Automatic annotation (TrEMBL):
<dbReference type="Pfam" id="PF03432">
    <property type="entry name" value="Relaxase"/>
</dbReference>
<feature type="domain" description="MobA/VirD2-like nuclease">
    <location>
        <begin position="75"/>
        <end position="144"/>
    </location>
</feature>
<protein>
    <recommendedName>
        <fullName>MobA/VirD2-like nuclease domain-containing protein</fullName>
    </recommendedName>
</protein>
<dbReference type="InterPro" id="IPR005094">
    <property type="entry name" value="Endonuclease_MobA/VirD2"/>
</dbReference>
<feature type="compositionally biased region" description="Basic and acidic residues">
    <location>
        <begin position="331"/>
        <end position="343"/>
    </location>
</feature>
<feature type="compositionally biased region" description="Gly residues">
    <location>
        <begin position="302"/>
        <end position="330"/>
    </location>
</feature>
<feature type="region of interest" description="Disordered">
    <location>
        <begin position="302"/>
        <end position="346"/>
    </location>
</feature>
Length: 407
């Protein structure tokens, strides 16, 4: 069983993603607790129902993909979703979604609303390992071998605590508790970058490792990388390799990961930094190729960074208030006579007379109270604007909702 999840704000882009025509087929499933007739409206409704919750990410997008060896795909998905909702306390939460068929694989996407009727938010702590536990239970039930997992020991321990020792024994009998933890070849972010640029990260890693073995010093490494279509530049956290698609890769991580995958022995980051020490590098993205300094260790402040030389308000840099800097300070304030910086704002506040500080505090408190009242009015207006019977009822249109507690 394969599952994946992402939490976010929802929106039309999410609904369009679920309806993408690149799939062989798309079947919109019957929603729960929602009245809109189409998927776009259903996702919008989920977002509207979350207005009273204290979260900026009220939607939970989850997908479940049963193994091809399972003949009863529908039954496996039903079982997985049942266990999943029990695990996360989502049995009464509204959702919508779609079933996709792509490359002969039938899988299901759902978008759950995370805000409960009382304004509380569903707890998703450790959601990855909890979803893996659900998948192991379904694999055991349908007679599949367990999928290797780096969390196998923790999952087995929790299965015993949940009253499912037979599944824990199944994991142990399959040797899952003693195997080396598997490492994914790509992180989700790296996979998205690879899909966007069309350049395989594995090829970039292999080329960087070949360039490393073909060189003995920093200049030689730069030449060997260039011969393989890669450019060596200075980055914010250290030297980076820029591929043909413009993607940047930290050279220490690139060489280290490639060497670990090749023979199991990782080339230390310190060895890579030592080879590049003192090598003049241009800034990544610098079109004129001007030298901006030697290869920098991780954490070194680069020109143009906030607080560094050439940064906003720094010597010779850009002022925050206008182009060209000049008399503008980094916070937009004017410099004093002789180029002196203005006093720190907190110091200026501390020098105010006691009666001035008291009056200022009272004004700020009044603004905060008015802001809270304004937010409550916005929530009430949004609920009333739904116009579908949910303004004074719960998400299923049943029962009188209690007025929300004040902020």
């Amino acid at each position: 069983m394969i599952s994946g999840a992402m939490r976010g704000k929802g929106g039309d882009a999410l609904a369009r993603h679920l309806l993408k025509p690149e799939n062989d087929s798309v079947e919109v499933i019957a929603p729960r607790g929602l009245g809109s007739p189409d998927l776009v409206g259903q996702v919008r409704e989920l977002v509207a129902l979350s207005l009273g919750g204290r979260t900026d990410s009220p939607c939970y997008h989850v997908h479940c993909d049963p193994d091809l060896a399972i003949e009863d795909n529908d039954g496996a998905r039903r079982r997985w979703w049942h266990l999943f909702e029990q695990e996360f306390g989502l049995t009464s939460q509204p959702y919508c979604g779609a079933v996709h068929v792509k490359h002969a694989r039938r899988h299901e996407h759902r978008v759950y609303g995370l805000v409960r009727r009382d304004g509380g938010v569903v707890d998703l702590a450790w959601d990855y390992i909890r979803r893996e536990k659900v998948s192991r239970i379904v694999e055991h039930q349908f007679g599949l071998p367990p999928v290797p997992s780096k969390h196998a020991r923790a999952i087995a321990h929790q299965l015993v605590a949940d009253g499912r020792p037979e599944v824990a024994r199944w994991l142990e009998a399959a040797g899952m508790l003693g195997i080396e933890r598997p490492v994914a070849p790509l992180s989700p972010q790296e996979r998205l970058v690879q899909e966007r640029t069309g350049i395989k990260l594995g090829n970039v890693r292999a080329a960087a490792l070949a360039a490393w073995h073909a060189s003995t010093d920093g200049e030689g490494l730069r030449v060997e990388l260039a011969a393989r279509g890669l450019r060596l530049h200075a980055g914010r956290a250290g030297p980076v390799v820029v591929d043909a698609g413009g993607g940047t890769h930290l050279v220490t991580r690139l060489v280290g990961t490639a060497s670990k995958a090749a023979d199991g022995n990782r080339i230390p980051a310190a060895a890579v930094r030592a080879r590049l020490a003192g090598l003049p590098l241009t800034q990544a993205g610098d079109g004129n190729g001007s030298v901006v300094g030697a290869a920098r260790p991780a954490g070194h402040v680069v020109g143009g960074d906030p607080g560094g030389a050439g940064s906003a308000g720094g010597a010779g840099g850009l002022g925050a208030g206008r182009l060209g800097g000049g008399a503008e300070g980094p916070d937009g304030g004017r410099r004093g006579a002789g180029g002196r910086d203005p006093d720190a704002p907190l110091s200026r506040l501390r020098r105010l007379p006691a009666w001035r500080r008291g009056r200022l505090a009272a004004r700020l408190s009044g603004l905060a109270l008015r802001d809270s009242a304004s937010r409550m009015k916005d929530i009430d207006r949004a609920r009333a604007s739904l116009g579908n019977g949910l303004a004074r009822t719960d998400m299923h249109g049943v029962g009188q909702l209690a007025p929300p507690a004040p902020f």
